[in-house]
Amino acid sequence: MWGIELRFKDEISLSRQIFLTLKERIVTGQISQREALPSTRELAKGLGISRNTVCEAYDMLLTEGFIISRQGAPSRVAEGLHIHTYKKADMPAETRSDSPPILWDFKTGQPDLSLFPWSLWSQMIRDAAICLPVQELEYNGPKGYQPLCEEISQWLFRSRGMEVHPEDIFITSGAMQALHLLVDLLYKEGQVFAIEDPSHPGIRTVIADKGYPLHTMQVDEQGADISSLEGKAVSAVYVTPSHQFPLGGILPAGRRAALIRLAIEHDFYIIEDDYDSEFRYIGPPVSPIYSMDSSHVIYVGTFSKTVFPALRLGFAVLPKPLQARWKHYRNFMDVQNPVLEQAALAEFLRKRKMDKHVQHMRQVYSDKRKILLSSIENAFGNSVRPWGDASGLHVALQFPGMEFEKQFVRDSTEAGIRVYPLTQFCPAQDNHKDKLLIGYGHLSQTQIQEGVRALHQFLKKNDLAAGEAKLL
């Protein structure tokens, strides 16, 4: 009746179903303005339901102004409500993909979540919910949960030798939120943001979407070429000096010092993204640029690799002159992060569970790295050269004389292998065409061995393993 089809087992009440159906038919013009609706008694009888249910639906329509009602007269549709003409939606045809599933996904930046101490984390979340004072559940401002800031300060000292005051630490929803805030915070009219080439597409996209000018610094095996900044009017410089993403180089002290001198001389800030330096397998941890000069360096960290990506907790260490504006920007973005997760992470750090977990995972990833490198050597011999394999959860592989482009990605995906050409991380996509990025942190040792063999067989099958130059 009146196009109303009731679903008696639905979670939505019958009265709301009637309201939503009549509302939709009014807005789409199927029920004309000033048209009289059936009486509540008549509609209830036609639908086989109680009159009270229909009365509730009519009350909703009346409250929101879709109908008008007068004593002794039928309820009528109000005027001026027709928005668009009704068109029955085409039901999507059932589709099925004949493509084989992805058997080996060498995605980057993905930790092994199977080894995280989930039961311990769940207990810490429960304890936070029980023990947090009521005032901590109120709006607490944009800085973050203070006990977490204090524990991060201690964690940075233990893991990186950084001396950071808790008051300079600001909690974020991961590193990307920090970068969004910093780009707006640091932009100077007409002056460029300098980033590495190649670099993570996230920072490039943030800057480009805001319409800010961009300058790229070419990257070699030692990181960014700082000399290209000479003579540039710079808003800020973004670098990954401890483990350049994606090539893996370590920015040497000479380049770091030159970058700091430029920042001081021309009054700009350096954004240091330290995204995975906890996992270093050769030699001692690399000191951050922040340790050389904290006045012109903004240190950005994240717990996505050390804890788990969905936690969405990171932090920025801000120089004093930026803190008031940061608080203003953050206040009108989302105010603060969820406090339960912050409290649980603070306890995870305080009880040194983070230290223990990172130490364990460093050994796990070191073993996986060895398996990856030996599998590459067994499959490809000396024809493939690894880049940046001393740290992190990925390695860049150089295949001299070869070029990997979009068709290669499509073909390898069809073969059940997902790999990532380095050109995806280059602004102009015309450099490093002979390199693939291979992530291995989330894969088992068996998956790594099988995946490398599958990649070799795929390249060999497509006449790409012989080292001949070929456009794809």
UniProtKB/TrEMBL annotation:
InterPro entries: Aminotransferase_I/II_large, HTH_trans_reg/aminotransferase, PyrdxlP-dep_Trfase, PyrdxlP-dep_Trfase_major, Tscrpt_reg_HTH_GntR, WH-like_DNA-bd_sf, WH_DNA-bd_sf. Residues 12-80 form the HTH gntR-type domain. The keyword DNA-binding applies. PROSITE patterns: HTH_GNTR (PS50949). GO terms for molecular function: DNA binding; DNA-binding transcription factor activity; pyridoxal phosphate binding; transaminase activity. It holds the Pfam family Aminotran_1_2. Keywords: Aminotransferase, DNA-binding, Pyridoxal phosphate, Transcription, Transcription regulation, Transferase. Its cofactor is pyridoxal 5'-phosphate. In the C-terminal section; belongs to the class-I pyridoxal-phosphate-dependent aminotransferase family. This is GntR family transcriptional regulator. It comes from Paenibacillus donghaensis.
